[in-house]
Amino acid sequence: MGSRIYVDNAGTTAMASQVIEAMTTAMKDTFGNASTTNYYGRQAKQVLEDCRHYLAQSVHAQYDDEIVITSGGTESDNTVIKQVAQARQSEGKHIITTAFEHEAILRPLSDLEAQGFEVTYLPVDEFGQINLDDLKAALRPDTILVSIMTVNNEVGSHLPIHQIGQIVADSSAWFHTDAVQAYGILPIDVQADQIDLLSMSAHKINGPKMTGFLYRRRGINFPAFIRGGDQELKRRAGTENVPGVVGMTTAARLHLEKMASHQAHYHDLKHRLVDGLSQVGVDFEINGHLDDQMAPQTISLWFKGVPNDALLTNLDLEGIIGAAGSACTSGSLDPSHVLVAMYGQDSPRIWETLRFSFGIDNTLAEVDQIVAALNKYTKRLKNNGDRGQR
């Protein structure tokens, strides 16, 4: 194959040329320390604040200073979980989340449980959705935080954030959402959805790695996670990465200004994949739905009787780069906790599922090549009788 086909954009995306150009210019021309008062520092500060203003508007924040620049989704998630617990433990030690959150939420929560906090893990159904009545029943006077992702990173299910926000707003808990897989893909309105805290990462939208932000509503107070200088209004120490923020903002513009057309493009790619596989007789099922309550860019498919590790390896040799699950845990031999939460630990889907996540540069012709490769390898591997048991 002359060129590779990349369909693991939920793992990371290639930096857009516009982003690289903007960052290169910033690295050459805006090298100052934004926390200093000299000419170059003031110049860098102005660029930083212009970017902050755009990022605040992008989520309908009321104030620019509600945007805290971080190194990405993991830092933002860890900051919320650990620092809210520290700040509010005198009010209660109960936190609510879902059973299929990203590890950047689940692992710090596990740390808190070891320290005496209680965590309720809401179950999800076979479509990757929670029951809102479960959330209502789980809320208690000592619940200090509810953290529920906007879009699941493995199967693409889109959680009902607006309704969740309304429910949490009637309690004393703060509402956080990990929007790493949603920002730039779906509209986000922290005011309408009554979101108190939100995590975002630039490398999911063709921006730079190690750059992101945490939306933190005014009045939501907790100590800084990274201690040192007084940057970010004393909320996150460390000299600001101005070129990275410029890149993140450029990437945000690229996606937000063409959101509707990008969504339509992802829709066409997903339907081309599913229709193509059906036409050639591949034995598969969708994990979740095709469209309803799903993000447009990601689809998770169960290839019945085909071990996903062997299938992924053959696709990779063919020049097609997909994923078996989250990029953050793909090197692990453990089963996907997302699929376990949805289907149970004995389901064959756990070992027979691949994720395809599309980007803005994928084409219908590429999807046709993916269909042809899947048709060849799923039937070959299934006929060999290797069902991928572990």
From TrEMBL:
Name under which the protein is recorded: Cysteine desulfurase
Native organism: Limosilactobacillus gastricus DSM 16045
Record has Cell membrane as a keyword: no
Lineage of origin: Bacteria, Bacillati, Bacillota, Bacilli, Lactobacillales
GO molecular function: cysteine desulfurase activity; iron-sulfur cluster binding; metal ion binding
Entry's family note: Belongs to the class-V pyridoxal-phosphate-dependent aminotransferase family. NifS/IscS subfamily.
Residues covered by the Aminotransferase class V domain: 5-369
Names of the cofactor(s): pyridoxal 5'-phosphate
Annotated catalysed reactions: (sulfur carrier)-H + L-cysteine = (sulfur carrier)-SH + L-alanine
Pfam families: Aminotran_5 (PF00266)
Keyword terms, alphabetized: Iron, Iron-sulfur, Metal-binding, Pyridoxal phosphate, Transferase
